[in-house]
Design goal:
By secondary structure, the chain is an alpha/beta fold. It is 34% helix and 17% strand. It is built from 28 helices and 29 strands. Strands 1, 2, 3, 4, 5, 6, 17 and 18 form an eight-stranded mixed sheet that branches. Strand 22 and strand 23 form a beta hairpin. Helix 7 crosses helix 8 and helix 22 crosses helix 24. The longest helix has 22 residues. It starts with 5 loop residues before the first helix and ends in a 16-residue tail after the last helix. Ligand NA7 binds next to helix 6.
Length: 887
């Protein structure tokens, strides 16, 4: 007899199943809110919860000292103002019992328990393609047949196995912080070990030390921790909330972390030591994770140098508290940037190590060999114990979803298999191949990088709103497309470039679980941007989703929701919000003063060795220039630099941050030339000034600090951006044709190389990304009469290209000038010129110039600096030029 097919088995199982529209796993913050929303939207729903009561993470994590570490003002539901006034938190950081009471209060207030099956674990979840429903089998009671299946199972709910030999041999008591006994644990008079110093360890260690006869802490990696200063809710935070509750909550929703705190805008190098210390002390006094992670200086999160300044201050504090220097040093994190691993809020944590009944064992020096019947044996000692507490963490993000039960999607695909190489999701909410399955705060969503409650509400709202819209439109199935999912993975990777998370082994990246595929799992782009992206998916016709219904109804608007680099997206959104008139409508003077004002708002460039403002001899009189000298000992090669601005705007100072950055990275002198502008000085004034400036700089190289070779001439290079790239390219052609001086290399960044507007990049990007077709038309109109535009001094692509210096050509994807830049690179290569290209994905015309604003452009500048050094015959980058930012 043939075996029944999977579909037949599912169909048979469905017959006696509990039938609901939606099944939810979990009755924590997410599950409870989902039930409220689903019920209000008129869906039948059931929540399946393994525990005997509501609470989720707060049901299980009952260890001594367990508290939230986002302030309770913010760690609360916000969907119902009446609920907000009905509940008062007693502390700034509530204890686990109080949070559990809160969730119980919510469950009662909205009468949720009647829709929750407690003590029930889902054992399998299988998509029934024919019925377009999920069938869930459980370990307790009927299976469940549902149209939609929502995992609200939390990010940190699958405890990690201890991974230490001999656990089973231990004859004393063993506890996990994440599964702490409800009746509590008697520790008085006992010899206790805590393994692990993450948040759970840091919170529980001081409390356990107060009770135990002796506490031995086994630490593998020290964490950054700073005081919680718990107590009553801070009056200023409460006042800010009460002043305008709706506005406060809205600010939280639009913020990066889900907590409405202003982020620091000044960079570390703009502050004195004393100012930095003052900011640090203020954040320390605030006792707030988000404040310490975002209010010191703008470069603390994404730049190693800026980060190290914060880390040093935190390290100093540990040594000030802990009396034994060896213990203090062992507790001092030195192997990861601050914030790259989840920092902890502490109450008496460091002081606890001054107690006579507390010992720290540094597992980096003496790893655990095994657990024995009587205790723990390391390389150096045997510690006899009555109790071992594992504070060793969780199989985070994915563990809660895949380890719970097999999930089988379309065509029998297993979610564990699909995620074998790391989680793949669209928006962290859905997975291609798994129709009608949603995750709340899943991998790929802001989740643990945010105030979870804010993220949970956003997710639940988005999902339930979608289900309502589908019901309205007659669709019964929704599934992410592969293209959208792949795009999301790219966007995640782009966002993670802006952080330092890749430099730490953490549960954020799966590194805490042996064998787990590495990769940053939470979405690092911030809750506000994330929310706008989710909304954009909807406003663009459910972009990246396949919707289907009975009778063959189908809708699929496939595509990637974010193709821009994340910081480019923010910059462009910000510019769009300013609703500026087009530059070309301001007239040349108006546009110039706008650019001046705009540039004044940029972060000041980083310090270089020296800056000199002086004049040089142009084609028809003196021209101003600004020289940037590296702080490394000279002489240095010189780069003659031409700024951007369409031959009309800008000056020798307008690309200041770029010149500073490139001077530091390349270890070369940059001389930014103030060539003459149109319409006062039309073609070929700028081009001729470019060549004249090159000659003058070559002749005066020694005085400028330039390196000279045996022939008395050092490597001289040219570079330029946009119209300046045009001048740089033309200068190379003129130098070749007019007898020098020799040029060692040319760096052309988004250069204008041709006068036609018919390449695809002009069409695709005609309107969108600040530099528009109309603006280019205006620039050309000012600079060059139509009859002259094909002159190679205006359109170098039309000139002879053989014999030009080696080139590095950078182009940006969302730039009208993209294709002519690529065409120039290809044409030079075809003419035998050594050419390197950078085609910057997700960037716009100004990206590579916006130093410290578009941080994702830094990796491009690293490549440019390397190319310049190669052109100049310099092999190694000097220390100062090493990338310090997020590349
Ligand atoms: P964490 O933050 O993952 O901390 C676990 C700790 O346990 C951490 O110090 C680990 O060291 C340590 N650990 C894990 N496995 C071992 C083994 N095998 N041997 C020795 N030490 C080990 O979990 P928490 O429960 O503290 O906090 C989780 C989150 O909950 C927290 O971040 C907040 O978001 C709330 P490692 O660092 O891996 O070297």
């Amino acid at each position: 007899m043939p075996l029944p097919s999977a579909a037949q088995t599912v169909a048979a199982g469905a017959q006696d199943a509990q039938q609901v529209d939606v099944a939810v796993v979990g009755a924590g913050f997410a599950g409870l809110y989902l039930l409220i929303r689903l019920r209000r939207a008129g869906f039948t729903a059931v929540a399946l919860e393994a525990a005997d009561d509501v609470g989720g993470t707060w049901y299980w994590n009952r260890y001594p000292g367990a508290r939230c570490d986002i302030q309770t003002t913010d760690y609360s539901y916000t969907f119902d103002p009446e609920l907000e006034s009905a509940w008062r938190w007693s502390e700034k950081y509530a204890t686990q019992p109080e949070i559990l009471r809160y969730l119980g209060f919510v469950a009662d207030r909205y009468d949720l328990r009647r829709d929750i099956r407690f003590g029930t674990k889902v054992q399998t979840a299988t998509w029934d393609e024919a019925a377009q429903r999920w069938l869930l089998t459980t370990d307790n009671g009927k299976p469940v047949s549902c149209r939609y299946y929502i995992m609200a199972s939390g990010c940190l709910s699958a405890p990690k196995p201890p991974e230490i030999d001999g656990v089973g041999d231990f004859t004393g008591e063993i506890y996990f912080t994440g599964r702490w006994p409800h009746e509590g644990v008697e520790l008085a008079g006992k010899r206790v070990a805590v393994i692990g110093t993450g948040s759970s360890g840091v919170q529980s260690i001081p409390r356990i030390a107060e009770q135990a006869a002796h506490l031995t802490v086994f630490q593998r990696t020290p964490n950054f921790a700073f005081p919680a200063h718990n107590g009553p809710q801070p009056p200023d935070r409460v006042a800010a909330l009460e002043k305008d509750r709706a506005d406060y909550r809205q600010q939280a929703r639009l913020s990066l972390t889900g907590v409405p705190l202003e982020r620091a805008t000044e960079f570390s190098w703009q502050l004195s030591d004393a100012e930095r210390r003052q900011r640090f002390e203020k954040a320390l006094a605030a006792g707030d994770l988000v404040a310490m992670l975002s209010q010191l200086w703008a470069d603390q999160g994404g730049d190693l140098e800026g980060n190290a300044l914060a880390a040093d201050l935190l390290r100093e504090r540990i040594h000030a508290i802990v009396k034994d220097p060896e213990t203090a040093e062992a507790l001092t994190p030195r192997d990861h940037p601050f914030g790259s691993k989840r920092p902890c809020l502490e109450t008496d944590y460091y002081a606890t190590f001054n107690r006579p009944n507390v010992t720290l064992v540094n597992l980096r020096q003496e790893p655990i060999k095994r657990i024995t019947a009587s205790g723990i044996e390391t390389d150096r000692r045997i510690v006899d114990l009555d109790v071992i507490v594992f504070a060793t963490g969780f199989d985070a993000m994915t563990g809660a979803i895949t380890a719970v039960h097999p999930i089988t999607g379309r065509d029998g695909k297993s979610l564990s298999d699909v995620w074998a190489g790391g989680p793949r999701t669209y928006l962290g909410l859905t997975v291609a191949g798994f129709p009608n399955l949603f995750m709340i705060t899943g991998p790929g969503s802001p989740s643990v990088f945010s105030n979870m409650v804010v993220s949970i509400e956003q997710h639940a709202d988005w999902v339930v709103d979608r289900l309502m819209a589908m019901r309205e439109a007659g669709f019964t199935a929704i599934e992410a497309t592969e293209a959208a999912q792949a795009g999301w993975a790219r966007h995640m990777a782009d966002c993670s470039q802006l952080t330092l998370h890749r430099l730490a082994n953490t549960w954020y990246t799966g590194a805490n679980v042996p064998g787990k595929a590495p990769g940053l799992m939470p979405y690092p782009g911030g809750v506000g941007p994330y929310r706008t992206i989710c909304d954009e998916v909807v406003s663009r016709g459910m972009l990246g989703f396949n919707l289907s219904g009975p009778d063959g109804a189908v809708q699929c608007n496939d595509g990637e929701v974010v193709r821009l680099q994340p910081d480019v997206r923010l910059v462009l959104n910000m510019l769009a919000e300013l609703n500026l008139p087009p530059l070309e409508s301001l007239g040349a003077e108006g546009a110039r003063s706008f650019v001046k004002q705009f540039n004044a708002t940029r972060p000041a460039g980083r310090p270089v060795g020296e800056i000199v403002d002086a004049t040089l001899q142009g084609a028809d009189g003196p021209l101003p220039y600004r020289l940037y000298r590296p702080s490394t000992p000279g002489p240095h090669p010189i780069v003659v630099y031409f700024h951007g601005g369409g031959w009309v705007l800008g000056d020798e100072q307008s690309d200041d941050p770029f010149c500073r950055d490139m001077c530091r990275r390349s270890g070369m002198i940059f001389v930014s030339v103030g060539y003459r502008h149109a319409p006062e000085h039309c073609f070929p004034a700028a081009a001729e000034d470019g060549y004249a400036a090159l000659r003058w700089i070559a002749e005066n190289a020694a005085e400028l600090g330039g390196r000279l070779d045996a022939n008395g001439a050092g490597p001289l290079l040219v570079a330029g951006w946009s119209a300046g790239g045009n001048i740089a390219a033309v200068t190379c052609q003129l130098a070749r044709d007019r007898g020098g001086p020799p040029i060692a290399g040319q760096l052309l960044v988004c250069p204008v190389t041709d006068c036609t507007f018919d390449r695809p990049s002009y069409i695709e990007n005609a309107e969108g990304y600040f530099l528009t077709r109309s603006l280019m038309d205006w620039f050309w109109g000012h600079y060059c009469p139509a009859a002259d535009r094909t002159d190679p001094r205006a359109s170098p692509l039309r000139g002879k290209l053989a014999g030009l210096p080696p080139a590095f050509v950078a182009t940006c994807e969302f730039d009208p000038l993209r294709d002519e830049g690529i065409a120039y690179a290809e044409a030079m290569a075809a003419a035998g010129v050594p050419v390197e290209q950078l085609q910057a994905r997700g960037h716009f015309h100004s990206s590579l110039m916006m130093v410290d604003v578009v941080a994702t452009g830094a990796s491009g500048r690293v490549k440019m600096a390397e190319a310049l050094r190669r052109f100049a015959g310099m092999a190694e980058r000097p220390e100062e030029a090493m990338p310090k930012a997020a590349e």
